[in-house]
Amino acid sequence: MSRSIFSMIQKLTSNVRSCNMAQTAFLQKAALEERCILVDEFDRPIGNASKRDCHRINNNGTIPLHRAFSVFLFNKDNDLLLQKRSPWKVTFPGHYTNSCCSHPLAEIPGETLEDDAIGIRRAAQRRLNYELGIPLSEIQLSDFFYLSRIHYFSSGDGIWGEHEIDYILFLQKDHITIDPNPDEVLPEIKQTLMIYDNGSSNYLIILSKDLELDHQLS
User: Fold this and answer.
1) Which is more confidently placed, 61 or 203?
2) Overall average pLDDT of the 89-117 stretch
3) Same domain, 191 and 145
4) Phi and psi angles of residue 124, each rounded to the nearest 5 degrees, phi first
5) What is the pLDDT of residue 79?
6) Does 217 map to a domain?
7) How many other C-beta atoms lie within 10 A of the C-beta of residue 99?
8) Which of 63, 107, 124, 189 is most buried, most CB within 10 Å of its CB?
């Protein structure tokens, strides 16, 4: 291959990569305008606010308390699927975390419903489809096992953090279709029971200790 053709291919590849990065940054910025459900310490709804305002640390160190969920997807051998977060995420970019974690949204009909955590289940089904590409037809709302809620706080990097009433959902499935969304998840996905301090989100470490899951810290 001639030097000029090789140089042209390199330039084209670089341009495509730059366009993809710009698109990802745009999508992540747009996602910060989604409306999270604000709650009090008893998980009673008190309003809504943008995802941006729900994760940006205020000058006094506080973060608005809001509703969230975390899905732990196991196969029949009890292996846990971990994802590696996109480097464009404002909280814990590039870190390993549980299978899927996000928020029910105030602007989506049905995701504010509370009986049997049905709104949370709907949000989890939606995000598993968006982040991991799992078809909606492969996971039914009844497949989710609602385990508990936890009150979770992390100061993150000092600029962006977390303060959530987090619903813990377990899901056990085999033979599902996974096609990760590169805007949300890096291609590297782990299926493991080993959870590590180095490179894992604070949330994953705290939760694994609180629930006394089998794990090994290094």
Assistant:
1) 61
2) 90
3) yes
4) -65, -40
5) 86
6) no
7) 24
8) 124
> Does residue 21 sit in the same domain as residue 108?
no
In angstroms, how far is the first alpha carbon of the chain from the final one?
47
- 63 and 17 share a domain? no
Total structural domains in the chain? 2
Report yes or no: 189 and 82 within 8 Å, Cβ to Cβ: yes
pLDDT tens digits along 109-128? 899 999 999 999 999 999 99
pTM: 0.76
Place of tokens 């303060």: 163
**What CATH number does residue 40 fall under?**
3.90.79.10
Provide the token pair at 57.
């640390």
What mean pLDDT comes out for the span 47-62? Answer: 95
Identify whether residues 140 and 118 lie together within a single domain. Answer: yes
**Does any domain span residue 211?**
no
**Which residues have a catalytic role annotated?**
101, 164
| Residue 110 lies inside a defined structural domain of this protein | yes
β-pairing, 96-97 vs 100-102, is unpaired
Range of the domain at 167: 35-206
